[in-house]
């Protein structure tokens, strides 16, 4: 079932999203060579709780952590661990926050230490793909318009879009209808309505889009060992256009 949110509910989700965005702003300087993704997990959980929120991923379908920390060829749902990060690693930090009953969800990618031209290109394309998708999140457009715009751009940059994991509706629970693929046909799929709140979260790979699962039942890897990047925002569909609820301010440059 798709739930349409009231203006008050969207305002509350915006407050939740601002807290989540603030976590990511702090991670920009926190993440560096030598720390571990477990250090990130501890930092994020403490930050959320000190600011009155709940790390909503803990306990969701049996998941144990406040964050998903996926490194290099891990597409998503990587477990935090104590192995130190090294310069040149690409880490995706995904989290959900419940603030006074209002949900928000955002993943951001970070290069640890020194980058490379390959990483720079992957990061730039993935982030731009997110905003290209958001531009299509207009009242009256269809779900397929979002995916088609993202897929066309990404494949034009000789990268691939993951098919197995998609965006989704959110609030009052973490994952709700509708599903929001990052590939597809323009003009197809559910029509977007005012009051919908969804995530758009393209996962972009340097090689094949196909994935393989870890025996842990959660973590997905690229099938060919290529790098994978992800950026995600929670946004509301409004009559004035998409309203990004997890904005860090960076979209002003796109």
TrEMBL record:
Substrate binds at residues 77, 175. Keywords: Aminopeptidase, Hydrolase, Metal-binding, Protease. PROSITE patterns: MAP_1. Pfam families: Peptidase_M24. Belongs to the peptidase M24A family. Methionine aminopeptidase type 1 subfamily. Its cofactor is Co(2+); Zn(2+); Mn(2+); Fe(2+). A divalent metal cation 2 binds at residues 105, 168, 201, 232. It catalyses: Release of N-terminal amino acids, preferentially methionine, from peptides and arylamides. The keyword tRNA processing does not apply. InterPro entries: Creatinase/aminopeptidase-like, Pept_M24, Pept_M24_MAP, Pept_M24A_MAP1. It comes from Enterococcus larvae. GO terms for molecular function: initiator methionyl aminopeptidase activity. A divalent metal cation 1 binds at residues 94, 105, 232. Residues 11-239 form the Peptidase M24 domain. NCBIfam families: met_pdase_I (TIGR00500). Removes the N-terminal methionine from nascent proteins. The N-terminal methionine is often cleaved when the second residue in the primary sequence is small and uncharged (Met-Ala-, Cys, Gly, Pro, Ser, Thr, or Val). Requires deformylation of the N(alpha)-formylated initiator methionine before it can be hydrolyzed. Monomer. This is Methionine aminopeptidase.
